[in-house]
Amino acid sequence: MSWIESNSIPRRTALQIGGLGMFGLTLPRFLKAADQPNAKPGRAKSVIFLYQFGGPSHLDTFDPKPNAPDGVRSHYGVIDTSAPGIQICDQLPKTSLVMNDVTLVRTVHHTMKNHNPASYYALTGHAPPLDDIRLRDSQELFPAYGSVVDRLAPATNGMPTFVAFPHVLRDGEITPGQHASFLGKAHDPLLVTADPNDRRFSLPELSLPANLTAERLQDRREIQKLVNRQAKQLDQSAAARGLDAYYERTLGMLNTSKVRDAFNLEAESATTRDKYGRTTYGQSCLLARRLIESGVKFVNVYFANNIGGRVKDGGWDTHGFDNSRMYPLLSDYHLPMTEQTLPTLINDLKERGLFDDTLIVWMGEFGRTPRINDNVSRDHWPQCYTALLAGGGVKRGFVYGTSDKQGAYPDKDPVQLDDLIATVFDLMGIDPQTEVHDKLNRPLPISGGRVVTAVRA
After folding, report:
1. Homologous superfamily (CATH) for 11-455
2. Whole-Å CA distances, 318 to 72, 107, 372
3. DSSP per residue, 191-204
4. Cα–Cα distance between 229 and 135 in angstroms, integer?
5. What is the pLDDT at residue 131?
């Protein structure tokens, strides 16, 4: 069974999804930061991973082929950008202005044609054992990137290392690769599924009951009563009832406002919130900036909780089924959403002096077919697509890799997903060859790829 759908729902999952406010049961593990020899100084102190579930069309975004034949060429035109020689889709004029700050990797490729296996690959950097839509999560599969960072180079500033929001990804089955897997639940992300665009948004895990003030938390008996009472609502395990060895540090955090303040979007001006867009994804991108500004090291922001294709609030899966054509969806939803959020995040990080230390990764699980199908849309295409990197030690205004004339296959400098993620770890100062151990105590490297040194600044 999946990590959420098991008959015995894990305590952390209940906290994250149920929103019951069990702050005393979730924070201790985030304060656990043993000395690790695997990290060295890196250019990227933090990562914002903007995951575009469903698979954006590279030909209609960042790798247009204006000279391709009819049936391949995008319905959109191209536009010059602030980076000489780089053109992108003409529906992204604001994004074109920040292209001198990004690196485009136009030759990412693999062989997984189904969303869950391809997404698992994209979320972990390891190829799944099979390309099957029914791929289920298991402890044999590899952990999410943020969980690896939490294991090897955890935050030591009282903030969680790894936070993910605002969805749980699924295509039928829960998509594997969203948590810590064999590294253990201690390295799971802080998963927040509340909508940051909701005016009542808050972090349930840190919400105090109305009758419990911060001053009363000084009384250990009061907090212990609260924890025991909440634990009884969830399960009767000793692990759920106890605060373990990190109780003192948890109590110390609860007496400060650092974590609560990081999630307080009301602290942002209306102007800033409007710039990001009053949408779930827009406010999630703003929240990501607040979190890394507060010291979180790895943030996953999920574009949608479903692959999309039939609804205007879904992901990028645009086959054109049910008379839901790709180009209207792109024009009405996907591209405007990208246009509002991506350049806004880049500019906001620059204005705050965070851009050089923060690596943005914008990518999906695959691209779309070069040839437009009979529904005037595009199908799955993992053989060649584009990932965007910005800040955090990568070159500015740079393109790595060249796809062929139709955007079908890499023509020069192919990059496997393994290579891309090895590069992300390297930029964070983590050796991609570092080994972790699975449940059978077998040593496994965190990445089997090679670092693409050419993208480093």
Report:
1. Alkaline Phosphatase, subunit A (3.40.720.10)
2. 15, 21, 11
3. E--S-TTSTT---G
4. 38
5. 86
